[in-house]
């Protein structure tokens, strides 16, 4: 019997976006999957890139050895999930960090990941909706009854990770502004 494959997941996001609660929900949701799949999940909420950006956000030097090492470590994760800023109004009121601070960190994370060509997916929603989006991004929402399709060995090729790109400009700040404007209209 072979050992289960380890799938590593990094949860990134501004302070107060729910990284720890999503990590706990993902661990609970993925635990039953361990019985039926040959996968082991490792969810991380404290990455070198997140720590570096929190420490040096105003003076970030993308040419520094620290930044390059943090990006290299981020690339080692199988999945990088960035939590969006769409907090529930009740959660927003409880946050010690201002909306401007959260927005600045969100922009730094998006810009750093994009500039370093680190594939990531943005997860929005609250509660169960956010959990469903994260599970879907991880490919963990497949029906347990469905058998995985395995293409013939001669046609199997490594899959390139998906990197978000706006239809118009491929700018993560633009996407953030568009979502913020849509949320304000609610």
Q: Widest sheet: strand order?
A: 2-1-3-4
Unreliable stretches covering 5 or more consecutive residues: 143-156
Biggest sheet: strands, sense, closure?
4 strands, parallel
Roughly how many Å apart are the termini? 52 Å
How would you describe this structure to a colleague?
With 186 residues, this protein is α/β, with parallel strands linked by helices. It has a single domain (5-146, 163-184), classed as Rossmann fold (3-Layer(aba) Sandwich). It is built from eight helices and four strands; from the N terminus they run βααβααβααβαα. The chain has helices spanning 19-30, 33-36, 48-56, 65-75, 89-94, 99-115, 127-137, 172-184; strands spanning 5-12, 39-44, 79-83, 121-123. A four-stranded parallel sheet has the order 2-1-3-4, sandwiched between helices. The longest helix has 17 residues, at 99-115. The protein is globular. Residues 143-156 have low confidence and may be disordered.
List the helices and strands and how they pair.
Blueprint: E1 5-12, H1 19-30, H2 33-36, E2 39-44, H3 48-56, H4 65-75, E3 79-83, H5 89-94, H6 99-115, E4 121-123, H7 127-137, H8 172-184
Parallel strand pairs: 1-2, 1-3, 3-4
Helix pairs in contact: 1-7, 3-4
Short description:
This protein is α/β, with parallel strands linked by helices.
What features would you highlight for this structure?
Rossmann fold, alpha/beta, 186 residues
